[in-house]
Amino acid sequence: MQSASDRHEYPAHWEADVVLRDGGTARIRPITIDDAERLVSFYEQVSDESKYYRFFAPYPRLSDKDVHRFTHHDFVDRVGLAATVGGEFIATVRYDRIGADGMAASAPADEAEVAFLVQDAHQGRGVASALLEHIAAVARERDIRRFAAEVLPANTKMIKVFTDAGYTQKRSFEDGVVHLEFGLEPTERSVAVQRAREQRAEAHSVGRLLAPGSVAVVGAGRTPGGVGRSVLGNLREAGFTGRLYAVNKAFPEDLKELDGVPAHRSVRDIAAPVDLAVVAVPAEQVPEAVAECGEHGVQGLVVLSAGYAESGPEGRERQRQLVRHARAYGMRIIGPNAFGVINTSPEVRLNASLAPEMPRPGRIGLFAQSGAIGIALLSRLHRRGGGVTGVTGVSTFISSGNRADVSGNDVLQYWYDDPDTDVALMYLESIGNPRKFTRLARRTAAAKPLVVVQGAGSAPQGHAVRATRLPHATVSALLRQAGVIRVDTITELVDAGLLLARQPLPTGPRVAILGNSESLGLLTYDACLSEGLRPLPPLDLTTEASAQDFHAALARALADETCDAVVVTAIPAIGERSPGDAELAEALRSAAAAAPAKPVLVVHVELGGLATALSAATSTAPRAEAVPRARTDVPDGAQPVPAAVEAPEGTHLIPAYPAAERAVRALAEAVKYAQWRREAADAGKVPEYEDVDEKGAAELIGGLLARGQGLSLGTDDTCELLGRYGIRTRRAIPAPTPDEAARAADALGYPVALKATAPHLRHRADLGGVRLDVADEEQLRRSYAELTELFGKTEEIRPVVQAMAPRGVDTVVRAVIDPAAGAVLSFGLAGAASQLLGDMAHRLVPVTDREATSLIRSIRTAPLLFGWRGSTPVDTAALEDLLLRVSRLVDDHPEVVAVTLEPVVVAPHGLSVLGASVRLAPPPARDDLGPRTLPTY
Known about the structure:
22% strand, seven-stranded mixed β-sheet
């Protein structure tokens, strides 16, 4: 049981589960007075050499004084963290705040001495690196800015932990000791190091689940037809190359085999190591199975059992307990309520799922939260692989069910550098951590296409994650900006995925269309226009076209420098010269092979044989009747199914579609993705401004927040804070009486604007609450009387007087801190365009100069800024500068949770910010620059 400290309550938010370098997990938590026995036991398992490196002298055991010192912390000036597995310590780290003289101190001293100790059996797993990230985050939270460490020169592992972390360092050598000092503010390098470690660790954790050397099916019944028995059969039929075990506590003691597979009553009874356990027992029996697996050293679990978060509050708590239990043993979980996992690699041949057939091997990775959608995806790829679109198979498949632990983020980490996956397809019912997903998606999409169908689901069931407040459409827009190919249906997911897996990316939107049907060509032409492509006039080869005619026409189109892609349309033809399906397929394939740099698609009508022939032309799979089953006379299923025959190097399969709209939609997504790839190669930079007073803004924000937990700033404070970032606002003077309005106008100078600022009238010039170009006091008093007559008393309408701004286009700039997605910058035109039509564009903060440029041009009403119908173009350069300054403000100061500038009048020269509001709140204890953690429960 955790206890409160002597100065601060136990900081539960410091607890975290982390993935280590080898893919296992550990729990990091503060050390308390209840940990004395654990600390002593841990120390006894540390080698004498490691103890010497820690204390610079032989130190065989801890004294009572030592134990007291290392377990009593105030969580401010003295902090200790432990990494635990199975509830026992495997490593510790502590810091002690010190003053300039190196002695113990309290705030405002901002330096601390840090020291680590890692059990020898766990060295090399990245434990110390993870602990350094967490203790550094704790120190920053407690206003410590620097760490100091003294290390013996022979302790090269610990020196490497410090030097590789990426912080700004000073290093010296004195009296035989290496003295290190480093600041704790995240640097570009430290963040890059942390994220690279995160990627390797999470990818390895998924890799251990997808490529195990041995699998135990827990709950494999003696009677055929059950879930466990079905999975066991699927593993055998797929030809799993590793060791296979059947486990069921109901087995008779004399049962040695089940379907030729070694049978055991408990995982504990298996003499050899087990890498993966597939759990298919009732939910109430799962805790016992998890404990057995953990004690045996199993690395990961696929939990097929239902009865968890999907079943209600009791199930949600059962799911939380399941995750805590598994992580305590260092295991990761796919599920619960999962459909299973598949790896078609010939070195693995893993079908630990409820899919009765192994998918064809291929280059597409599939992830689905829903088991039903997972079945549909596998079925469509299997069906279309042999018919409509030729042979394209699956590399890996994960159906995560309730996604209690392993999520789409983890799988993206794995696919990012998986050499067997060229295209990633994902069905996501929800995105638990949009900020991280967007970051990972951007990196993955820069290397390989990522196609996503996003449902409108809520947060993952049973997760303690922060829910996004952004509209679904906004999240989708942010994903597209990260390079994600967003589609709306499973059909579109497969259509786009097959094209991207088979063909090169187009270099532009110009499309050549040719075929033997004028009508189908025109349909394709219209579809291209609807999708924003630039089709060339269709070439009609007539229904009498031969295979040679198709070959020659396709060859000419591919050689044409004015086209970037070709769509071939084909309908059944009658006549002596009409080609057979196989002949036409070979003609198209040979022409495309001669010009492999441009994508080719086929639209066919009632030509199922053509799709099959296109598949056969460069098939990467054996015929169905030639696929052997795994041998049943081998107890552990060690004989793999032979790998599919590989297509010739550099061969592109030609995808075929039964409708022009589907082919063109897939091509349009490929064109947009290719454009994103080109732009992502030069994402731009976040500019530096000499007139930005970051320190002064921080002091102002700190003083304002001292008044309360969260507040909306008044006009003067808003103007002062924005001014620190070079954002000037036009002053609006309250005018509660006509006389005060006149005095305000005299101070500002005529002409002025008189505005009603009540919430129901703000920014609603259409309601008559604004009077512009008021030239003198007489007109001002008349306008004032009109406002009060129309809308009521002055205290109800809240009139203000403001100097007139140069005429231009009214726009709105907003920035909000979303709890899940992070800081988001938004832009649109003020008024009906943004309020009624939702014509707003969004970018994640920090925004680069190129992103600011594209943000302005992303809204549908952007032409109004660039001289639409003869109007004068406005100063978009000034607008871009404003967007970049707002972005810097919210990025530099996480306390700024909302900024609204409305209206921002953009004139032909310069702009005027006429209205501004800012809201502050205490910053979160941890953000995306914080230490690596898994979702909490």
